[in-house]
Amino acid sequence: MRKLAFVAFVSLAVPTAMPTLAAEVDAVASFSILGDMVSRVGGDRVAVTTFVGPNADTHVYEPTPADAAALTSTQVFFVNGLGFEGWLERLVEATGFAGPVVTVSEGVATHTMDEDGEEITDPHAWQSLSNGQIYVSNIARALCAVDAAGCKTYTANAEAYSAELAALDAEVKAKIAEVSEAQRRVITTHDAFGYFGEAYGITFLAPEGVSTESEASAADVAALIEQVRAEGVKALFIENMSDSRLIEQIAQETGATVGGELYADALSEPNQPAATYVDMFRHNVELLVPALTGQ
Ligand SMILES: [Zn+2]
Fold first, then answer.
1. Are 112 and 66 in a shared domain?
2. How far does residue 209's CA lie from ligand 1's centre (Å)?
3. What is the mean pLDDT of residues 177-196?
4. What Rg, from alpha-carbon coordinates, does the chain have?
5. 89 has pLDDT over 50
6. Is there a contact between 260 and 209 (Cβ–Cβ < 8 Å)?
7. Distance separating alpha carbons of residues 81 and 103, to the nearest angstrom
8. Given pLDDT bands bounded at 50, 70 and 90, which one contains residue 21?
9. Residues 6 or more apart in contact with residue 156 via CB below 8 angstroms
């Protein structure tokens, strides 16, 4: 009787996002896409807590007291870097977290964009599957450093996952090759697909810059509307984690239709079509290709 009561107490008291007792390593990932990648590499040995959850916007995120508490008991903190988590330094400082902060984008050839005459580093490196493979090897190396006993497992998991990403990369390239180059133009809410565009040969245009923090000016929106009309851009997409109103406005003023919702900076909920990094990529490509070819 006493044992049963104890079990009930534990299951009520421990939030679902907290690490399970069986894992060897407690890790934190800053956002959902990275959380999934760390889980794939870590397998059963690593319990992952994710700060910015499904369909949420990391650019404008504000860390919660629960996040700060999670950092005080975690062994390793995985972040994207490249300025994606603008709140990162303040959080690490405030919590006094002394463990490794692993920047998974390290080693990526960075994509930069011109924003109002200023050169800005684009943080959305995961939107290329070859960069995804760099993330995976950085994650494996960091987990080996925290848990040497699990290193064989992490290396094997990373190799299998990386092979899956490489196969998907080839598949995506083959699908996009079906689209004529003149048709490869897409409008989304913010500049989240620069790496995708570079890797797969699509031009993405957006009223907002590389961060959703910056608001689009009326002049930017007007210029984009002009461009959609002049170039006959047909593919307009909203994003799962940002405001859809600008895209709807552009669609309305140009007579273009919205082709659906791309997953940009966050995964979906588990019961939605982009619950993992791999599913996110598949879903985006399955939406993009017919929209670009007008099918
Ligand atoms: Zn973004």
1. yes
2. 8
3. 94
4. 20
5. yes
6. no
7. 5
8. low
9. none
Tell me the pLDDT tens digit for each residue of 142-161: 999 999 999 999 999 999 99
Looking at the DSSP assignment, which residues form a beta bridge with residue 25?
Answer: 46
- Please tell me the distance between residue 283's alpha carbon and the centre of ligand 1 in angstroms: 18
Q: Is the dihedral of CA 49, 55, 61, 64 positive or negative?
A: negative
Helix or strand run (H / E) with residue 29: strand 25-31
Distance 265 CA to ligand 1 centre (A): 5
| Domain around 66 | 2-168
Q: Are residues 124 and 16 in the same domain?
A: yes
Q: Tell me the CA–centroid distance for residue 79 and ligand 1, in Å.
A: 14
pTM: 0.91
The CA 154 to ligand 1 mean position distance, Å, reads: 29
Residue found under tokens 């245009």: 205
Q: Tell me the CA–centroid distance for residue 152 and ligand 1, in Å.
A: 34
Secondary structure element (H or E) that encloses residue 48, with its range: strand 46-52
pLDDT digits (tens, 9 = 90+) for 42-52: 999 999 999 99
Distances (CA, A) of 129 to 91, 173, 285: 29, 11, 12
For 53, other C-beta atoms within 10 Å of its C-beta total 14
| Overall domain count for the chain | 2
83 and 174 in a common domain: no
Expressed in angstroms and rounded, the spacing between residue 189 Cα and the centre of ligand 1 is 9
* Residues in contact with 35: Cβ distance below 8 Å, sequence separation at least 6, in sequence order: 29, 48, 49, 50
108 token code pair: 């990526």
CA of 264 to the centre of ligand 1 (A): 7
pLDDT at 215: 83
CA of 71 to the centre of ligand 1 (A): 24
